[in-house]
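Predict the 3D structure for this chain.
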Amino acid sequence: MIVNAVVDAKTEMMNRQPEINTQRNVYQVDSLSANNNAPTVVDRRSAAKNPSKKKRKCMDYVRKTIPSIDWLFLNYRWSEDFAEDTMAGIAVAVLNIPQGMAYSILGNVEPTVGLYMAVFPVLVYSLLGTSRHISLGVLSVLCLMTGRVVTMYANDGIAADPGTSYTAIQVATAVTMVAGLVQLLMYVFRLGLLCTVLSETLVSGFTSSVAVIVLTSQLKELLGVDVARRVGMMQVPHTFYDFADRFHTINWMTTAVSITTIAILLVYNKYLKERINSKLCMPLPIELIVTVFATVLFQVTTIAQDYNMVQMGEIKSGLPAFEVPPVKLYSAVFVDACVIALVGYSITMSLALLVSEKMKYPLDTNQELLAQGLGNVVGSFFSCLPSGASPSRSASQQTVGGKTQMASIVSAGIIVVVLLWIGVVFEPLPRCVLSSIIVMALKGLLMQVLDFPEIWRKSRTDGAVWIVTYSTVIVLDIDTGLLVGVVVSLLFVFAKGVLNEVHVLGRLPDTDLYVRLDLYGDAAEVPDVKIVRYAGSLNVINRYMFKSKLIQVTRGGCDDASMTVTVVDGKHATGGWRNQCVVLDMAALQYADAAGVKMLSESIESLVSDGFDVYLAAVPDSSLEYIRCNNEVKSVRFFPTVHDAVVFRQCSSKKIQDSTYDSQPTKTPNGL
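Done. Predicted structure below.
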């Protein structure tokens, strides 16, 4: 019996709801600051203007600018990490070979250019970057955007003026140089947070639409149709029209090889990848295996020649020569290079942040600008396109067990070997095989369109940004669509900063919790106290909206607590000795400028002149002193919480009631 009683007592204690019991004085803001040694306004301002700074030595700046001094030259654990980094480097290298050659097609340059990008920018980033797992190199979005610029300006000696004749690689390297310089300029001015302009939703819609453009551009290689490549406005609609018009030129053998390659990759990724990779120490390089098999097949047979299939052709062996990009092209490609620089940095940083959060290590956004920018500048001297982080290669580097950027150094070394001695082996490879690899690599981006209903359900604003970006990029152009998406996104941010929400609050029974009346049915208004929560900014743009609604509510006698802007209900006190009180809960005030504070002051003055007592509660510290200094109504009281204001009001009303009752004359009954 005693044991059962103890068990029942423990069960009751566990099931009992936790309680908060506290007893303290009612505070106003001034008394709270005085009793708790809070700094004065002057002390706060001086501390903000003169923050304490630690003296840093020159070596500290060097080690911060070149992170590899710490992780590679001083603290690298050769016995523990080198074996895993080597395996990760091999895994990344075998992915780089087919992807590098394939994505070079998007850039309208030679297939070896994609392999160059797996060496020079990668080595620079491994020494200067702060992410331990991203794999820099070819990225489909950047290659396609660069290929568009190459198509516009490359003429390969056809121009009448020899001074304006540029090859495809010259245009591409000029874009790379300008993009790198833009990123370095962003680093100098500490603009690492500029990537936040491109939200995750906007990047998702943008990359999905670019994947559609990439797929459209590869139809020529996949089907062997003889059509010219379209660029500029309405690229996708015009391309589909050209295919319909020239469909009779289709190469059926090329189409069959493309379908077979895509089918093999699709079946492997869907049904065999997880089973096989779980039994291996590193992912099976299915793309490289398909590439090697197709190369051998078309090397020992005459299928390509018999059916007029387009092959890779001559592949240069060795490393590229040092060459300065043509300076005259810088001004022509500046705008496109700026967009490429911003897109490349945003996509790379999004991937780097995702991996760093998963692996629990910090990133320096500005240092990433230095690493990527200098990588592009160095790469431009060695025939490289603008580089970015690849999700597939970065995921492979992380899942195989790579610990540091030593994996990228190992990968770059393997690619150098391929360039020197092995690259020429892939000359018989049909281009349609590489195009098929591109399409399969874009499968995830293409399928992002299926996420749109979920994005729309969670947020109509994000859904609108996604669909506007997606549709404008496809219908119009990459640059125009991205600009429209950014503008729409910023307009929504601006609108949210202008619009505000004001709700009437009530108190939950037997608590000090004040919640919205339109959401909590048990909440009730405190007698003779109207509690209002203001959420948003109070600025020069929305001040008249606030004023008009306030006048309408206070003068019109509206009792609707669920209105967007509701400050008071307009009812005057019924008793001759009582007046109503308005408590403004300002905890959710984001920002107040001079015009907004002036309008708030005028509104408070209007309420006071009508007989209301006005209390401001929970004003943020960033706005408190500004409001107090610019508020011309001296009768306003400031409280740290809503509950302090309510209790203060109730106590004040009780004192007034008692004094009024005591001052009334006592009536003596008749006959006494």
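The first strand starts at residue 136 and ends at 137.
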